[in-house]
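Hi R.,

As promised on Friday, here is the backbone we talked about, encoded as structure tokens. Could you run it through your design pipeline when you get a chance and send me back a sequence?
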């Protein structure tokens, strides 16, 4: 039965509406930043997670490379913290 079956993360993601490894990677980045924001009680990280979420949704829909913008947002956040 289902108990004896194992599913890879990619299989689970594809059943949840994610269509590619890029979608999965965006989801993982967003989850990690949200988790870090919660652990650190950081409003700045929570805002970064919100921006990443918006870029992932709307940037991908527009055919842009949202990872380039996401990397920029994270780099900017690191620069502010230094």
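Update: got your reply. Pasting your designed sequence below so it's all in one thread:
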């Amino acid at each position: 039965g289902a108990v004896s079956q194992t599913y890879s993360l990619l299989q689970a993601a594809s059943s949840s509406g994610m269509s590619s490894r890029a979608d999965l990677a965006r989801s993982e980045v967003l989850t990690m930043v949200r988790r870090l924001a919660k652990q650190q009680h950081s409003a700045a990280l929570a805002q970064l997670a919100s921006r990443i979420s918006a870029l992932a949704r709307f940037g991908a829909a527009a055919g842009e490379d949202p990872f380039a913008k996401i990397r920029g947002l994270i780099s900017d956040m690191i620069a502010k913290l230094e």
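One thing I noticed while checking it: Residues 21-40 form the longest helix (20 residues).

Thanks again,
M.
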